[in-house]
């Protein structure tokens, strides 16, 4: 099977970020603003509203991490412009979030519900802001990207992928690194998984070298190459963290649970047999118990396709969001 | 006895006749949404994904929340959406509570599209069953009122909260139930509440839930003032958590406190009860509704839009400025007390009458705007264990 296409269609933002999508992201700074954010995005071309349950009643360090995740998503290279919708009285202040996103060079707009005078007024202001973002992004030049321009996030499969299938992921990572891509692998709680089997046969999909630098959750890598990223067990929170760290595309080994998308980065689901066989139609690649010789190339090709075209989940508008929390809600 | 028109259910009386589509895990949210889209059904989404690290106590809390929400009397029938068949225990639990319910398991159905198709069929059956329901005469005492404040300001404790307290007293006197919650916003008022406890055990329980939260904050080495009062509270003139709490506690009125219940637990006693919830507006609302509240009153100084997919939420502003500025979201204006055109008593009566009208079908602003915020609340049991705090 042929390797992935060498170039991908992308866009260059004024701040230099290179993306494979041109989303207009609508971020509620707090759960209370989610409905207004969603309504503002409805019918607006290219607009994606995220939903989350956080932003208030959070303690210091935990509130800071939520803000960092939201800012990471707002400045993601696949996002051509970001609208922050704030209530006004929340702990993660929308105005500060907007400043932090705009301060990092991203095209950004702000709407406050209390400031606007209620939901209906805020939605109207939000729609106008989205139009300004779209107009601004229209002049972003189209560019040809290679793997060397892209970051691939890899979610951990914690329940343990059998060795034959895990080896496929090792090969996928090797191929991506050889092609110049930056690879970030989520590593739950500093462990490769609770699976006691010997290293190499462990659960976390194909090991990024253990000596690779470890990034804190939702933190972009400082350079290229292979990285590990601290992450919680929740696969959705892993995806959110990888995206907040700038992953252009995310690889999800599905050894349990269901596919779940991500608001800013396409997700390629690799179904691990036998778990994923009953819903094989929902995954991009099925890995049989005895993977075929071309399995790794097929996974890399699927990643390449996801960079080029909308995935099935993206077409359904189906994505989930979970932010890792380090302290309880107050 | 005062009578109102409600929906009769096996497990109480409902103020609404919703059919709910409820994902049991976050990754089933997309299927749930696709099933409900374009139908009369309501749906919610959340970010809870079970992991092997979850403490059993939190699994129990989450299962209780999901089951209680689906079995709230405002829900005529519930369609659960699960990833794997192991979660069907929750279906049994909800049915055992007397709720009409069905389940779609995405992996069993054969993936997203097949699950949506199967779910549509099951939802149609639930919807047509619900369509036959009619309101009947019911006692006012059947109501469980959830009280909440959010985006509080310096007037919350002077206008809207004591006015809501007067309404709470009316409902308690009529034999109904009122839930006072948001434990983090009762910190500093616990001695006043304990004095009104119906028994020494209830008084002790009030101190316990407060001390638990204080221990959690200490164990994190944080200052609760980082989260509470929130920036908007401070801008609104509140200076300390104690000041906020003294105002917040007034929502429950002045009657004896009959019981302290855990999060999302249905009160066994009628009258005024306290539920141990976080101050987080959505987690609190979900907890009260999962505990059986069929209607809620939410006071706000700064103005806040949130609601519930299955329970009407009446918004009461603490001041006329917010009431007029946020008129998209505010149902009643307790600022009129300060303006001199209403008294605490007359405003309390108006809130009580609004509760009865809304219970009988009048829609609130949050309902009209389609609000359906939902959040899964976890409790820091592990932190408490480490802190060795009283449980």
TrEMBL record, chain A:
InterPro entries: GD_AH_second, UxaA_altronate/galactarate_dh. Signal peptide: none annotated. Residues 198-213 have a biased composition (Low complexity). GO terms for biological process: D-galacturonate catabolic process. Residues 10-135 form the D-galactarate/Altronate dehydratase second domain. One of its GO terms (molecular function) is lyase activity. Residues 185-227 are annotated as: Disordered. It comes from the Bacteria. This is D-galactarate/Altronate dehydratase second domain-containing protein. It comes from Candidatus Segetimicrobium genomatis. The lineage of its organism: Bacteria, Bacillati, Candidatus Sysuimicrobiota, Candidatus Sysuimicrobiia, Candidatus Sysuimicrobiales.
């Amino acid at each position: 099977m042929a390797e992935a296409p060498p170039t991908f269609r992308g866009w260059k933002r004024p701040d230099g970020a290179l993306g494979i999508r041109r989303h207009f992201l609508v971020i509620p700074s707090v759960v209370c603003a989610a409905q207004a954010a969603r309504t503002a995005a409805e019918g607006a071309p290219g607009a994606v509203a995220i939903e989350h349950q956080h932003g208030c009643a959070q303690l210091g360090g935990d509130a800071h991490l939520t803000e960092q995740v939201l800012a990471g998503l707002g400045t993601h290279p696949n996002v051509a412009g970001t609208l922050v919708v704030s209530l006004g009285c929340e702990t993660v202040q929308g105005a500060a979030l907007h400043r932090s996103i705009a301060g990092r060079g991203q095209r950004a707009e702000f709407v406050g519900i209390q400031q606007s005078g209620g939901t209906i007024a805020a939605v109207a202001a939000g729609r106008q802001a989205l139009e300004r973002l779209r107009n601004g992004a229209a002049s972003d030049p189209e560019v040809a990207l290679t793997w060397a321009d892209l970051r691939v996030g890899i979610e951990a499969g914690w329940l343990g992928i059998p060795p034959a299938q895990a080896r496929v992921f090792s090969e996928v990572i090797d191929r991506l690194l050889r092609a110049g891509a930056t690879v970030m692998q989520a590593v739950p709680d500093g462990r490769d998984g609770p699976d006691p089997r010997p290293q190499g046969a462990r659960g976390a999909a194909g090991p990024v070298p253990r000596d690779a630098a470890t990034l804190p959750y939702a933190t972009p890598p400082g350079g290229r190459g292979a990285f590990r990223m601290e992450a919680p067990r929740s696969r959705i929170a892993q995806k959110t963290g990888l995206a907040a760290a700038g992953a252009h595309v995310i690889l999800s080994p599905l050894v349990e649970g269901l596919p779940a998308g991500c608001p800013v980065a396409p997700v390629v689901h690799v179904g691990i047999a036998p778990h994923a066989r009953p819903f094989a139609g929902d995954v991009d690649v099925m890995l049989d118990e005895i993977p075929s010789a071309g399995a790794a190339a097929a996974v890399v090709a699927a990643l390449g396709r996801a960079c080029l075209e909308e995935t099935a989940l993206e077409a359904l508008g189906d994505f989930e969001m979970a932010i890792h929390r380090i302290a309880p809600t107050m | 006895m005062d009578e109102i028109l409600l929906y009769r259910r096996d497990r109480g009386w409902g103020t609404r006749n919703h059919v709910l589509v409820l994902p049991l895990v976050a990754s089933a949210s997309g299927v749930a949404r696709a099933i409900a889209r374009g139908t009369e059904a309501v749906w919610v989404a959340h970010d809870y994904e079970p992991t092997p690290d979850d403490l059993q106590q939190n699994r129990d809390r989450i299962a209780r929340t999901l089951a209680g929400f689906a079995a709230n009397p405002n829900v005529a029938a519930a369609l659960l959406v699960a990833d794997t068949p192991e979660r069907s225990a929750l279906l049994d639990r909800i049915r055992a509570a007397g709720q009409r319910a069905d389940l779609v398991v995405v992996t069993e159905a054969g993936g997203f599209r097949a699950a949506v198709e199967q779910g549509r069929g099951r939802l149609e059956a639930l919807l047509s069953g619900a369509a036959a329901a009619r309101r009947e005469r019911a006692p006012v005492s059947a109501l469980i009122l959830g009280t909440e404040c959010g985006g509080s300001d310096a007037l919350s404790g002077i206008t809207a909260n004591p006015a809501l307290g007067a309404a709470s007293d009316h409902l308690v006197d009529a034999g109904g139930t009122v839930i006072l919650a948001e434990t983090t916003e009762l910190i500093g008022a616990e001695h006043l509440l304990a004095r009104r406890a119906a028994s020494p055990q209830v008084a002790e329980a009030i101190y316990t839930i407060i001390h638990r939260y204080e221990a959690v904050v200490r164990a994190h080495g944080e200052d609760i003032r980082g989260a509470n009062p929130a920036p908007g509270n401070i801008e609104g003139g509140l200076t300390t958590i104690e000041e906020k709490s003294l105002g917040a506690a007034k929502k429950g009125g002045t009657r004896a406190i009959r019981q302290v219940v855990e999060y999302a637990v249905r009160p066994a006693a009628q009258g005024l009860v306290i539920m141990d919830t976080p101050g987080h507006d959505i987690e609190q609302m979900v907890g009260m509704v999962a505990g059986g509240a069929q209607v809620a009153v939410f006071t706000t100084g700064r103005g806040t839009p949130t609601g519930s997919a299955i329970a009407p939420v009446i918004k009461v502003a603490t001041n006329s400025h917010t009431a007029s500025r946020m008129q998209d979201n505010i149902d009643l204006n307790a600022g009129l007390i300060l303006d001199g055109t209403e008294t605490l008593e007359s405003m309390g009566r108006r809130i009580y009458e609004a509760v009865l009208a809304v219970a009988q079908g009048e829609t609130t602003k949050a309902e009209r705007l389609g609000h359906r915020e939902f959040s899964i609340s976890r409790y820091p049991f592990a932190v408490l264990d480490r802190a060795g705090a009283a449980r």
